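User: Structure please.
Assistant: Input sequence and predicted structure:
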Amino acid sequence: MQSPIVTMTLLKYKGFPNKFWAFTMMQFAHKYLKNISGLKFYKLMGTGSGNGFKVSADFSTYALLNVWESEEQANDFLDNGELFKLYRKKSIEQFTVYMHPIKSHGLWSKQNPFKPDADVPGDYTAVVTRATIATKHLIRFWRYVPGTSKTLEKYDGLVYAKGVGEWPIKQMATFSLWKDEKSMLAYAYNNHEHMKVVKKTRELNWYSEELFARFRPYKSIGTWQGKKLLPF
């Protein structure tokens, strides 16, 4: 069975009317997405300020994660889809990366939408981590996490990182792009602040649901912050 194609799209808005429209689409975009052929799973997400888990929101940036049966269906959505035509009209910048899942464990909305294919070659690596934080642990969680986010900026292999999520404070995720897997693993396993949070997670059982997924990017469309994030 063919592994799915995953796309992550970032959208940038300018001006209050467009930002407000983007905010409302967190609810209204479902009617466009729920019946699209070949779309197996999707998440509409807002973003946090900075590059990791943050309490404060970035109302100029939104994200859309899609899992497709085939690349052709993803292309049709991005080229011809009614929803994406609206996104292009309202936003000032769009960036989409196409990815093959290569590793995934955990659950997102009670399922794991990514069917990994470990044989995908390449250097560039993308990571999605997400968690639903147990209500009783919210204060303790947010006491620890911001320090970990700041340390991301110190890693040369990091191309881009952004905190994303379905709901502020409680349902959070990160999306990050790395030049190679070695750089990503160095952050995951050698960073003191990150390992401290991992240890606390195991000790205190912060999450009611969590997922970690690793991807091999192979195609990108558009720019972000005026630059091509990937060489393909």
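Strands lie at 5-12, 39-48, 57-68, 93-106, 125-133, 158-167, 171-178, 207-222.
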